[in-house]
Protein 1
Amino acid sequence: MGSILKAVILIGGPQKGTRFRPLSLELPKPLFPLAGFPMIYHHIEACSKVENLKEILLIGFYQPSESLTHFISSTQQEFKIQIRYLQEYTAMGTAGGIHHFRDQIMSGNPEAFFILNGDVCGDFPLADMYDFHRERSAGIRTTIMGTEATMQESVKYGCLVENPETHEVLHYVEKPGTFVSSKINTGIYLCSPDIIHDLNDVWRRQQEENFNGGFGDILARPSESISLEHNVFSEMASAGKLLVYYTTRFWSQIKSPGSTLYANRHYLQLYHETHPDRLAKNGDGLPSIIDDVFIHPTATVHSTAMVSALFVALLVEACSSFKFREILDVCSRTLDFYSCSVNVFLSLY
């Protein structure tokens, strides 16, 4: 048995994801279904395919809830992997939670650990990324999974400049004001244990700056929020401790309701390779299926209905002659005869 690996999924909290409203009002954003399964289910499934990955830690500041507890329990049983939720007392940023829960992350002495932002989606080649990192790990703290973006889109993400021969990141800047590079950060990282020392240094320096900055409110606690992207990666790049592993596979960020349509479409396309059994099929006595479609097992769809593109349904009864296209998440709804829905979001309740 080789060295163990772990994964951390950053799920944020209720103060984040306001651009995702109204879809996140009733259900935490990380549990919003994409292609029939909660957003972070796809992260966990990708992690489960990495050999010797023994534990997944969800870090965020959501209050524990029945929906989150049920998701963790059912997913843990399905993938036969330990999953725990570590609750931050406040928003700590993408590195603050890693620093705060460093003892839990490092228990068992993992060889390395993945960090996955919960608001991205894609076909994550984590095993290949691990092989890449392992072959070049001497002195390296972190490998970033990168991809290509257009010149116009790149400034919305973390941009990096690399040495094409060694894949070392020479320069990193988060959301630059002007074009830097078309190579961008996907929000997926693989870290060596020594990154904890870097986070300790950043945290101490930040606390010193807070205390030396003036008296202020003596009751206010120094901020423990640390960002990998803003506070850590640029220093790592300068010190030669940062690598980039590129992927050309599907990747997207989930920031708005409209972005879920794009993610659904690509996840459903991916099911042809990974889970063809999840895709609805045409047949006698079945609704007409056009393109890639997932229909939840609890849904009842009339045989005369036409279902196109991204239909995902929970506890929904669709009557005859209903036409669906680009619909996300219907819950406890009855859709009437001769209705037609195109590019819409139907409420959860």
Protein 2
Amino acid sequence: MVNRDAVLTRAPDVAEQRNRSIQNCQSVYDLLAIMLVRRGQFSMLCESFERSMKFSFEDFHIWFQFALALCCAGKHKRSLQVLKECISMNPGDPLVPLFAAKVCLEYLYKLDEGIQFAHQVISIGDNHHPLCHKGYLILGIGYSLKAEDARLQSDRKQFQKKALDAFYSVEPRDRDEVCEFYIGLQHAVARQIPQALEHVVRALDINCEHRHSYQLLALLCSSNKQYRKALEVINLALRDYPNDNHLLFVKVKLEEYCLGTTEATMTCKQMLQQWKSDFEEERQRLMREPQVERAYSDVRTHYGLDMTDRESVAGSMRAVSRVEHTLSEVASSMTSYVPKIGPHRSWLTQTQIWLQLVELYLTSDETLEADRCVQEASSIFPLSHLVLHMRGRIYEHRREFEEARHYYECAIAINPYHVKSLQHLGLIHHYLGNNSMAEKVLRDAVNADPTSHESW
């Protein structure tokens, strides 16, 4: 009805009628958005906003709602284009470039463009608007991601310094737990442990339930050889977040060191049980949804568009993920392999659990169990560089060095910056008597991550 009654002409004599029509349109679309968002019908909402474009020329409210709907539907590239139009309509609103920077950094990994939007947020209103500290925060995140991607040590240090400068530009009274966490994280990456501890404690003082700060605190304690204390921190965090996989993976590593592989293996098996329970709940939820809603959700999760599927990895790792996805599609066309249906993050978590079990079984010299676990991981992502690396680890444990070298080289072919594969390939070349090649590969490992003491 709104589309039918809209006033399309822009003649001056019907300006009042056109303004009233636009106001009615905004009210109707706001109510429609409230209803459809609650049911997860983002695709239908995008179609509705798309039909409204013919009579909402330079109407900031509708265009901004359209951009948010596109982002929720997983159409991030188009959402960014609409956000750029919104910025041109209302250049004095810092919220729009802040959203654009978030889309660039979190979904599209366009770091330079995201940094430009962050600078735009900061420059609005001479640094005196309420969102200025958010602009500095996202600017620091952008520079820290650039530091992760940098291959030269000089570039890496330069971006790390810029990230810290941006974080410290936030006034102390405006620093929340997220800002303090990122300052601590940046100091931790630079191996400045005392400063990192100081800021992560501040983050927990501000919000004692911030799980990322608990995880960082545990890692910092372990870097100081305080493994028992680190395990206590993780157990404390797990009281509030019992099913958080990031915390559980850290707990497995600490239990392996403090309590032995048996306890760590039990935790991994409990994680598998929890994964199965969560996956069944998600499947049952999708079965209870209406047919149209479930079909759209299946499409989004199959292609990795689920909004909960947000990986905090560097750009090179995102590129590796795309390579592995493409190789899996090629493999499925040539063999009987069928890609798993469902959220990509869910299957990735299960794969990580299986690979963690492989490491534990290799430590306890149970190669048969390790081989079974890597087979389970391979059935999910057969061409993952992590799976290929673990296959190499099994052959290296059996002292079958030629086979191990083959799998390490395959893993590096997919991800040339996988440090562990480079390290083990260097050792394999050393075992095979090719010391010049071993030195070359280990130099590549040092260039990829100069802070790894194993490479040195």
